[in-house]
Amino acid sequence: MQRENEELRHQLNTLSNQGTQLEKEPVHIDYQKIRDRILANLKVGKQAPKYKTSKALLDEFIEELKKPND
């Protein structure tokens, strides 16, 4: 029984360490690529007011997402 407890503690510790490592790895999101894909779905030219307004709003939104959490 004691050996089983020690094995389980070891497994729990291993899983905990793996979870901690995953939390520390930064996730890279290519916001501009997503923005460009959304803008392409508008099906208007790059000089169209709708495109320019949407691009400006998406860029502002991306900047908000990039801000560090308070």
Structure description:
The structure is a single chain. By secondary structure, the chain is mostly helical. It has one domain. 73% of the residues lie in helices and 0% in strands. It contains 3 helices and no strands. It has helices spanning 2-24, 31-40, 49-66. It is rod-shaped and about 70 Å long. The mean pLDDT is 86.
Please outline the helices and strands:
Blueprint: H1 2-24, H2 31-40, H3 49-66
Helix pairs in contact: 2-3
Number of domains: 1
Task: Indicate the overall shape.
Answer: rod-shaped
Tally the helices. 3
**Rg for CA atoms:** 23 Å
Task: Tell me the major beta sheet.
Answer: none
Distance between the termini: 47 Å
Q: Any low-confidence stretches, pLDDT <50, length ≥5?
A: none
Give the strand content. under 5%
The assigned structural class equals mainly alpha
Order of helices and strands: HHH
Strand segment count: 0
Whole-number average pLDDT?
86
Helical residues, percent: over 70%
Label this structure with key terms.
70 residues; mainly alpha; 73% helix; 0% strand
What can be said about this structure in brief?
The chain has one domain (2-66).
